[in-house]
Write a structure and sequence with these properties.
Blueprint lengths: L3 H14 L13 H11 L21 H16 L5 E2 L5 E5 L8 E6 L12 H16 L8 E6 L12 H6 L11 E2 L2 E2 H7 L19 E7 L4 H5 L3 E7 L1 E10 L3 E2 L11 H18 L5 E3 L3 E4 L5 E2 L2 E10 L2 H22 L2 E10 L2 E2 L2 H13 L4 E6 L4 H5 L5 E6 L15 H19 L5
Parallel strand pairs: 3-4, 3-7, 7-18, 8-17
Antiparallel strand pairs: 1-2, 2-4, 5-6, 8-16, 8-18, 9-14, 9-15, 10-13, 11-14, 12-14
Helix pairs in contact: 2-4, 4-12, 8-9, 10-12
Bound molecules: glyoxylic acid and manganese (II) ion (MN) (2 copies).
Length: 441
């Protein structure tokens, strides 16, 4: 015989999956399930013997990424939606709505930088799944189809390029892009590894107007909200990024027998350029930043004067003009350093992310959702790049930020309180429902 407890839990489960037509419950995400899923996702790419606090290394196309994506597919199915993988490896799932109306899209990514945190991208992706869950649980029939997305390959570690899945969707795809090789892997084959189809890659490209609007919940990754003790950030715009691949050619030679005055040391030249990047970005008024985050030395042996160095340089700012000026300054400084060190330097502008303004109507929808939840907001720019900036060319876009403790991110120490995660997910839900009431944003 069924116990009273089992009966009640079955009744609860039924209420969760069956729409209560005509009676709209107050929709809310389930904070316990959100936390449980974030903790489960964190086990994919966790360092051996580590804990949640050890963060994740879930670089795009790695085993950790592939297995985490498979886990996500199962979670999506268990939430009652059918996932679909596009040719670029992005995962979509749609719920309800009038098929003649454009869907409202929301989501984020689950790949990470090496030694990354548990919240960057993962929170926005799992919160998107919560939105689909909550809408069904509350028995809401949306006017627009609601579509969640898990963007493939957001971080810039693999192939030195980021926002890669959403970039394809936005139509930024050049001949030869999929032939690039990284870690012995062709990019087309990497995309096949995550369930995409490089032979039909054009099918992932979507025309402008494909969606009603796009929303992304993300941790701030900076310290503004945490310092101000404000739980919700409304993003006004996302910085542009110009990223360069620099190759310094010197001459490899014996470290013991080559006199100091006769060296063409590629690493000395590269190091001078690293300092110049910092100087160039710091010397100007404004919020622009410059970073050398990757450097490879050849042959990388203690007893050899380095013969070749390749490195990345990136500049970020809301103003494309500032970035162009910094790029010009980089080329001029590189030429001077090469002359002084007897090396050559080649500089290629490898990728650019356009600055993207968040749509005023989407910002307003986020503001009303936060207001209804009684949460204070702060408007702020995003210094981090996001898939939202790619999708901004296809539909009105907006982003919700939640506080990052101490402003730390791209680190295992990245931390957002569970309460802030839940608040952000509920504001995402509220903003989706607010946008659903509007025919246009
Ligand atoms: C993404 O995390 C970026 O800002 O590089
Ligand atoms: Mn990131
Ligand atoms: Mn991210």
């Amino acid at each position: 015989m069924l116990s009273r407890r089992a009966f009640l839990s079955m009744a609860g489960a039924a209420a969760l999956v069956q729409p209560v037509w005509g009676r709209r419950q107050n929709p809310t995400i389930d904070p316990v399930r959100l936390r449980r899923r974030l903790e489960s996702l964190s086990t994919y790419g966790r360092p051996g013997g580590g804990t949640f606090a050890s963060g994740v290394s879930r670089v795009a196309y790695s085993v950790a990424d592939v297995t985490a994506r498979a886990w996500m597919l199962e979670e999506m199915k268990s939430a009652g939606v059918a996932p679909r993988i596009d040719a670029a490896g992005n995962i979509y799932a749609r719920l309800g709505g009038d098929a003649n109306r454009p869907p409202i899209l929301f989501g984020s990514h689950i790949d990470s930088v090496p030694g990354g945190g548990n919240f960057d991208g993962s929170l926005g992706t799992l919160a998107a799944l919560e939105v689909l869950h909550a809408v069904q649980a509350a028995g809401i029939t949306p006017r627009h189809p609601l579509e969640m997305v898990l963007w493939a390959h957001e971080e810039s570690t693999a192939f030195g390029r980021g926002t890669a899945g959403s970039r394809i969707v936005a139509g930024d795809l050049k001949a030869g892009d999929l032939d690039q090789v990284w870690n012995g892997m062709r990019r087309g084959d990497a995309i096949r590894r995550i369930g995409g189809d490089p032979d039909r890659i054009e099918e992932a490209i979507r025309p402008a107007g494909s969606w009603h609007s796009y929303l992304e919940l993300h941790i701030e990754q900076g310290g503004t909200l945490d310092r101000a003790q404000v739980p919700i950030g409304i993003v006004e715009g996302i910085v542009a990024i110009h990223r360069f691949d620099v190759v310094v050619e010197g001459m490899a030679n014996h470290a013991g027998t080559t006199p100091m005055g006769e060296r063409q040391d590629a690493l000395v030249a590269a190091s001078t350029l690293v300092l110049a990047v910092r100087e160039m970005a710091a010397a100007r008024q404004g919020r622009q930043v410059g970073t050398v985050g990757r450097i490879d030395v050849e042959p990388n042996s203690p007893n050899v004067v380095p013969g070749r160095v390749s490195l990345s340089v990136e500049f970020r700012d809301l103003s494309e003009d500032t970035l162009r000026e910094l790029g010009d300054a980089l080329r001029a400084r590189a030429a001077a350093i090469a002359r002084d060190t007897g090396t050559t330097m080649t500089i290629d502008l490898a990728t650019t992310n356009p600055a993207a303004l968040a749509d005023a109507g989407v910002q307003d929808a986020i503001g009303s959702a936060a207001d209804r939840a009684g949460l204070a907001v702060r408007r702020l720019p995003s210094g981090a790049g996001h898939d939202a900036q790619m999708i901004a060319v296809l539909c009105p876009m907006g982003m919700i930020f939640v506080p990052s403790a101490g402003g730390v991110s791209h680190s295992p120490r990245e931390l957002t309180s569970w309460d802030d995660c839940a608040r952000g997910a509920n504001v995402l839900l509220g903003a989706v429902l607010e946008l659903d009431r509007r025919d246009s944003v």
